From TrEMBL:
It comes from the Bacteria. CDD domains: cupin_XRE_C (cd02209), HTH_XRE (cd00093). One of its GO terms (molecular function) is DNA binding. SMART domains: HTH_XRE (SM00530). Residues 1-13 have a biased composition (Basic and acidic residues). The lineage of its organism: Bacteria, Bacillati, Actinomycetota, Actinomycetes, Micrococcales. One of its GO terms (cellular component) is cytosol. This is Transcriptional regulator with XRE-family HTH domain. Residues 40-94 form the HTH cro/C1-type domain.
Amino acid sequence: MTDARHTNQEHGHGHPAGPDVTEDQTVGITEALSRVAPRLREIRQARGMTLSEVANETNLSVSTLSRLESGGRRPSLDVLLPLARCYRVPLDDLVGAPSTGDPRIHPKPVKRGDRVYLALSRATDGMQAFKVLVAPQKPADREKPVTLRVHEGTEWCYVLAGRLRLQLDDEVTILQPGEAAEFDTTRPHSMTNDGETTLEILSLFSRQAERSHIHETD
């Protein structure tokens, strides 16, 4: 009987078998989780987004997001995954994981209307580089009036392939491959595909311009 009782205590009856978590591992996990709150706030602010805008894109409540950023809620995978998709960053970026030393960017396509955006640089408070693919217009759409947009920020673009129709106020310029343009986006503007094939552009967006293009409602 004595041996049986001793055996039960060693194997921990009522608890799943498995390796014990060491004190160092527990401390490491706690430290990683403690970095999530300020990291979430940092990324959101770098994107120029409000809590309400993030809530709309992720289906998470504003109160949940606020508690995550203040450290009042423990982050879990079911909330970190939609946030990673919203901010277009790898999941380990949200927990401030150490850099692997790999300088490569792995862009994830973001579709907005007739165009697809691929981030070619990491988000910062300055300019961010994107490759933009714009589908050819349908014949019927070519007859419709162009909608001019106005928003804070600046944009720079370089045509890689196709024909870009750039309109600033009433001025229209056609850009061919190898040509570039830079303009203040507080000026009414539009950028459309003027050719029969996919338009490919290299663009640099300021934070405000990136927010308007990438986070706008479809």
